[in-house]
Amino acid sequence: MSEALTSTRPYMIRAWHEWCTDNHLTPYLLVRVDHTVAVPREFVQDGEIVLNIGMDATGGLSLGNDEIRFKARFSGKVREIIVPVERVQAIYARESGQGMGFEVLEEGDAGEPLDAAEVEDTPAAAPEVAEAPRAGLSVVSKPATEGGEPGQTAEGEATAAKPGQTPAKGSTLRVVK
User: Fold this and answer.
1) 27-48 pLDDT, tens per residue?
2) Rounded Cα gap, residues 71 and 94, in angstroms
3) How many CB atoms are located within 10 Å of the residue 94 CB?
4) In order of start, what are the domains of the chain with their CATH numbers?
């Protein structure tokens, strides 16, 4: 009796997340948004959203085999984020651009979009997430200001790559089909 093999995608996402964390890098997800993805729609550009899934930017992060769930702040409001694993286009390190890309198949199903549920803002809530515009697979970090970390402003708020920026030297992404 032959059983269908499970997808390698969730395992690769977890591995890249762990690698980024172990190397003090910030893991970002590039997500192709459809009706199955629960994210704040006001931050979706060209059907995509970039999400910071670093430990400092998320609360209750769960990198499951079927979906990725966490809480994060967007414009000061805590939101519940739900991303089906098959909607992840890439995971990469913000600072170096190293990561892995995945093929995302477009489905003909045009159901009602999910909206991220707003959660009561409490002191234990997740820290601010970079409100990233579509950065595609070319990712660079913003230069450090006033001695801060790359990709952060002087106030320590997260920033994101802007469309049209060139990739960081040595940046690589591998597309997996």
Assistant:
1) 999 999 999 999 999 999 999 9
2) 20
3) 28
4) 26-105+112-176 (2.30.30.220)
